[in-house]
Structure formats: C-alpha cells, structure tokens
Design goal:
Blueprint: H1 2-28, H2 42-68, E1 77-82, E2 85-90, H3 91-103, E3 108-118, E4 121-131, H4 136-155, E5 159-170
Parallel strand pairs: 4-5
Antiparallel strand pairs: 1-2, 3-4
Length: about 180
Amino acid sequence: MAKIIDRLLLFIYSLSIGVISIAAIFLLSGTNIGFSLSYIDEYNLQIAGYVIAGVLLLISLRFFYISIRRDKSSTPSIDQRTEHGDIQISMDTIENLCLKAAAKHRGVSDLKARIRVVESGLDITLRAVVDGDMSIPALTSDIQKGVHDHVEEITGIPVSSVSVYIANVTASPSFKSRVE
C-alpha cells in the first residue's frame, strides 16, 4: 500500500514540477520578465532561468517516467550456481512441488503450502484437511517424508524442515446411496 501511495505522490510531484518548469520556460522566453534588478544583467538572469527550468523539466520527466513505468520486480527465487551456469527456481515452483508431493497421499485435501528460506535450507509449512478415518500421525509423517524427499530430489535444494498443520478432518460417508 505504501508503494502505491509513494508512486502517486511522485506522480503528482513530477507533474506539478513539470508544469511549473514549462510555464517558467514560456515566461522567460519573452523580452519582459516582469521585474528588473539593477545589479544583474537581464540577459544573464534569463539564461540562468532557462538552465534552472530545463534542469527541473528533465528531473520531472525522469520522475514522471519512474511513476508510470511498470514495476519489473521478479518473483522471489532461489539462485544456485553450478559448474555450467546459474539456476533460478521460483518459490512458486517449489510450492507447487510441495503440493504435488503431498497430494499423492490418499485422504488429503485442501492443501496449501508456505515456503521460507532459512540458512539450513527450505522451511516448508503445509496446511491440509484430512480424512477422519486415517491415523493423523502416520499420515503426517508420510507427507513430511514424501515432501522432503520430492523437493530435495527435484530441486537439489536442502529441506531443513517440513511442518504439517491439520486444519480439519472430513467425515467420510458411512453409506453409499444406490441408484436404481
């Protein structure tokens, strides 16, 4: 939100400075500047005014460009250097790998993942809803091992921990309706 307000303020500032500098250029281009100082030559004053107005115009154009250009911020990624060059793996890719590995387990639904980079590797937190008929400790242990191994195998990035948060359980229907 602060970035949007900063850009808006920068846009307003650059637009107002631009208008003022253009008006100053037009006013200074006439022969009569509106006042006269006895110790300053009118020609030198006019040249100084042009220079100041031109510099302000250039600065305002630069600020205007910065305020309207699209932000080219890249998505967060993990950078690795190999003997053949650099590799960048986006955090979205790692998140999708975690979700894919966790979804392989039966009885798991409504998965969400959060990835943090720590000194020892990746800190992965999964949120899931599980089937109520399954052993939660056994299922979460399988999910942790599966996600840990899958992410390390695919990306080559060490995984320091995989935390699983069970948000809810779903009750499986005890009977199935028959259609006749």
